[in-house]
Amino acid sequence: MELWYTEKQTEQFGITAKIKQTHHSEQTEFQKLDVIETEEFGNMLVLDGMVMTTEKDEFVYHEMVAHVPLFTHSNPKRVLVVGGGDGGVIREILKHPSVEQAILVEIDGKVIEYSKKYLPTIAGSLDDPRVNVQVDDGFMHIAKSENEYDVIMVDSTEPVGPAVKLFEKGFYEGIAKALKEDGIFVAQTDNPWFHSDLIKNVFKDVKEIFPITRLYTANIPTYPSGLWTFTIGSKQYDPLQVEDSRFFKLETNYYTKELHKAAFALPKFVDDLIK
Fold this sequence. Notes:
Family: Belongs to the spermidine/spermine synthase family.
CATH class of the largest domain: Alpha Beta
Strand content: 25-35%
GO molecular function, one term: spermidine synthase activity
CATH architecture of the largest domain: 3-Layer(aba) Sandwich
Subunit structure: Homodimer or homotetramer.
Largest sheet: 7 strands, mixed
EC number: 2.5.1.16
Protein name: Polyamine aminopropyltransferase
């Protein structure tokens, strides 16, 4: 008998993957958590029925969240990740020698626990001495912070459950307050095929707060539609004006110096959303 996992991404569309086995399934305090092993994508973390990350394609998302803002900032030392309990963004942040401390604030400790157990290639850097892991509400952490961070990365689920408030204008205003005077933040902002209104609204809100606001994309096959967007808000540095001397060689599988700027070249239907 064959077993398949299907994520229903809209009422009319979904993706499916053949399963080898289920490693773990649990209703946590905050969400339904599953770790399954798939034939095509290896181990897969699923929250509330949505694919969060897989061993095969995780590098795209994690590299693009981390390296775009970190290469844009002139000297990132203190970095905050809101969400991201799988540890992939933290792993990429630590590739930057200027970073002195990376703080991870994840609301659901079970995500951290089972990522360490079943996704060690992703979560393996969470015990690094430069990392401070806090099981806490990222929204409240931001609300209590002021002038603390060089870069803030919002690595959230889609806007359901505890992540809904991470897509509100008040949260972005709090981020601006939590950043230093030359700070940068980035957030994943879903896909333009099924959630164009979300992209449009978030970009508008961020643009009203940050003098430099830009949208970029990446191809992530296990995320809805495969085309994913990220919104960046910066107080001073423009990701399209990074000098060549800022880039240094690091081990990646998706991100490159050339792709850094190319990712901001948007398909017309996406560009139209933010005009």
